[in-house]
Amino acid sequence: MPPTQTTCPRCRQPVMAEIENVFDVDTDPKSKQKILTGTQNHFICPVCQYEGNLATFIIYHDSEKELLLTYFPPELGLPVNEQERIMGPQITKIVNQLPAEKRKAYLLQPQTMLTMETMVNRVLEADGITKEMMQNQQQRLNLLQRLISATPESRQDLIKQEESLIDQDFFSILMRLIEVSNAQGDQQGTTVLSTIQQELISQTEFGKKLAYQAKETEAAIKSLQDASQSGLTREKLLDLIISADNDIRLSTLVSLARGGMDYTFFELLTQKINQSKDEKKEKLAQLREKLLSLVDELDKAYEQHLRQAKEILEKILASDNIQNAVEANINQMDDLFIELVQSELQEARKKSDLDRINKVEQIIIVLQKYSTPPPEVELIEKMMAAADDAAIGKLVEENADKITDEFLQLIAGLIQQSETQKQPKEVIDKLQSIYRMAMRHSMQVNLKK
């Protein structure tokens, strides 16, 4: 998007900024996330360092939910007829981009939102999120804002006072904000939020519960990895499951090794039950019932997931614009969906269904575009795979044009994230080596200039 000249709200100096007025989910699936997270038209003044959202009109469109929402900031002080004159051509463009079957009555009556909060609430409401759910989320957002503003000394008292609000929803919001800050290269914001996250984990009951679950899940994964080094057999898997001393480890093992828990596996378990006596026999029989229940739950969840993936695939195949349809559903696509697409392509080839083959191949092309990492991420992956510092240095020299301030911010953010998530020391050390070499190269270039 080309920069537009505007005026800083604080210092009133003319500055250039990227301004986005139309947020159309049909053409840009990320539009909804920008509106919901309040990151639309985020601006930092290069003169006075003012930071905030620029006051500009916004049009939000989602044909699937039949939403066409408009917002015009009251501080701009324009009469209604002038607002309509400005937004009219943009709305016409949205309508013209839609296929004929999607041009419905809602497009003739755009809904005017008086505040951005009203717009956010309307978008959430269309997703089935009730006012009560929104109020609960708002309470947690308000608490998070207070925690960010509080001093380290007063934060502990605030956590104790409001611990009832610190639950799964609160941690989900906090994690999303950490991801957004990290993606935007806001190292200071990421550090503050990560510090709060660690304090909540150590100071609240729910946080301690999360830490315990993470520890037990990690232990289960490690035990499975260790057993797999010399080849994972049903006998080894059964021993691991019998030795799992809590439900978290047990459910983790079942979810990761469901493929090995077949008829033969349960035959082995039944043999052990028959060979055991008294208390041990009863314990193993209870374990078998619990395993059968966990496997049944997993299978039902998989079947539901598969049905949803098939519905999305059929919906895309029925669309007149495959690319737009894929992009509109990209957030719902995972490994299972990709496997389903590949299977559908093979099936279409067997039947020599040329039309379906063509459509499925179009889907694959769009998915490949989205799965290809940005050049900066690809470069970092190559550097992480490099054998030593000399190899990293060579990559830095060969990709000098990619060693920008944004690249350095990305690595700094990855280091911060790795430290917060307690990644292995060798991973953090490698990232720090990459950062030092890239920083040294950047400084040398700047000195030459």
Task: Describe how the helices and strands are arranged.
Layout: E1 4-7, E2 14-17, E3 22-24, H1 31-37, E4 42-44, E5 51-53, E6 58-62, E7 67-71, H2 80-97, E8 111-113, H3 116-126, H4 131-149, H5 152-161, H6 168-183, H7 187-203, H8 205-228, H9 234-243, H10 247-256, H11 263-275, H12 278-317, H13 322-328, H14 335-350, H15 354-371, H16 375-385, H17 389-398, H18 405-420, H19 425-448
Parallel strand pairs: 3-6, 7-8
Antiparallel strand pairs: 1-2, 4-5, 6-7
Helix pairs in contact: 4-6, 6-7, 7-8, 7-18, 8-10, 11-12, 12-14, 13-15, 14-15, 17-19, 18-19
Description:
There is one protein chain. 66% of the residues lie in helices and 7% in strands. It is of the alpha/beta class and 449 residues long. It has five domains: 4-128, no CATH class; 132-203; 217-282, no CATH class; 319-371, no CATH class; 375-448, no CATH class. The strands form three sheets. It has a four-stranded mixed sheet with strand order 3-6-7-8, with helices on both faces. Helix 2 (80-97) links the parallel strand 7 (67-71) and strand 8. Helix 13 (322-328) crosses helix 15.
Q: Main traits of this protein?
A:
single chain; 449 residues; alpha/beta; 5 domains; four-stranded mixed sheet; two-stranded antiparallel ribbon; 19 helices; 7% strand; globular
Briefly note the structural class of the backbone: alpha/beta
The beta-strand count equals 8
Largest sheet: 4 strands, mixed
| Beta strand % | 5-15%
Number of domains: 5
Order of H and E elements: EEEHEEEEHEHHHHHHHHHHHHHHHHH
Strand order of the largest sheet: 3-6-7-8
Cα(first) to Cα(last) distance is 28 Å
- Number of discrete helical segments: 19
Low-confidence stretches at least 5 residues in length (pLDDT < 50)?
none
Please tell me the overall pLDDT: 87
What integer value in Å does the Rg equal? 27 Å
User: Which range best describes the helical content: under 10%, 10-25%, 25-40%, 40-55%, 55-70% or over 70%?
Assistant: 55-70%
**Shape field:** globular
